[in-house]
């Protein structure tokens, strides 16, 4: 099976001690080293021709890889392999050294398929008859690369038809979960442990975020020690604050400014859609109640 390698922006071929300069590659492995997106070998596979292209990043030479690209000659398929950053949002800050590419450039490239590297999660782009794909890492490398990971198999047929198959591959799974004490009816440590272990597994790498008002005291370190053996790896991020829920319910029922504040804030908390929004509303509740305890303020 032919194999194609291209050095990326973190392992540039231009480095004097680049690992690629020391490799002894077996037959059938093609290392593409041009600092601009240029033609590589032309392969014949099952009586069809595949023209390969690649770029090896050189900070002194490499620029927008698709900016002035034109495909070479006639082939059944034109396939490029490159490490570049898709500019898919004007707000994203992408450096020139990231080798930026745009959807319009993909559409105008005339390439059948672009095998992309840079982003670690799966992205599929179909523009102007060209298909560009970030396959994603085979294993999650950090939180944010959560869930199942896949080996991507792209099948090219009929000249311009590209089908994708994602095969489950990872041996460990990263996930981030939140447990909100305010809505989860957690009133004792045993119940908390049960909620955390619901996410357990010997293949699971989990970050558990605890948030909201807790009406009992607990030590996150002790909780972690009690359940960590049920996970491959566990992190507990404690964002809770101690609050007597009975007292909070009493405040909520008051026909006072404090009661109105608690009702409105708890309603906002229940409707919060992101961890950041929940954290902001929770902080507002804590600070607001602290102010109502100030003897100079009426309730």
Automatic annotation (TrEMBL):
InterPro entries linked to this entry: DNA_Repair-Maintenance_Comp, Metallo-depent_PP-like
Superkingdom: Bacteria
Protein name (record): DNA repair exonuclease
Source organism: Eiseniibacteriota bacterium
């Amino acid at each position: 099976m032919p194999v194609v390698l291209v050095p990326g922006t973190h392992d540039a071929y231009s480095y004097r001690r680049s690992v690629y300069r020391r490799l002894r590659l077996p037959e059938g492995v093609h290392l593409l080293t041009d600092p601009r997106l240029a033609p590589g070998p032309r392969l014949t596979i099952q009586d069809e021709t595949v023209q390969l292209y690649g770029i090896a990043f050189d900070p002194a030479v490499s620029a927008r890889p698709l900016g002035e690209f034109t495909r070479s000659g006639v082939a059944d398929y034109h396939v490029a392999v490159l490490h570049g950053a898709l500019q898919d949002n004007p707000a994203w800050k992408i450096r020139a050294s990231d080798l930026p590419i745009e959807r319009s450039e993909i559409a105008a490239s005339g390439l059948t398929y672009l095998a992309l590297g840079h982003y670690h999660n799966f992205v599929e782009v179909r523009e102007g008859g060209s298909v560009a794909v970030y396959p994603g890492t085979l294993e999650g490398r950090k939180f944010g690369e959560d869930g199942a990971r896949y080996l991507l198999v792209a099948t090219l047929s009929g000249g311009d038809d590209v089908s994708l198959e994602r095969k489950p591959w990872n041996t460990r799974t990263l996930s981030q979960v939140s447990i909100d004490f305010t809505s989860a009816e957690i009133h004792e440590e045993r119940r908390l442990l049960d909620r955390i272990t619901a996410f357990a597994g010997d293949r699971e790498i989990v970050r558990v975020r605890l948030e909201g008002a807790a009406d009992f005291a607990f030590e996150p370190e002790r909780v972690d020690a009690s359940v960590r053996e049920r996970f491959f790896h566990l992190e507990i991020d404690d964002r809770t604050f101690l609050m007597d829920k009975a007292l909070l319910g009493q405040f909520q029922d008051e026909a006072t400014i404090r009661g109105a504040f608690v009702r409105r804030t708890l309603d906002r908390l229940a409707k919060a859609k992101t961890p950041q929004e929940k954290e902001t509303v929770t902080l507002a509740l804590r600070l607001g109640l602290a102010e109502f305890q100030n003897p100079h303020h009426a309730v």
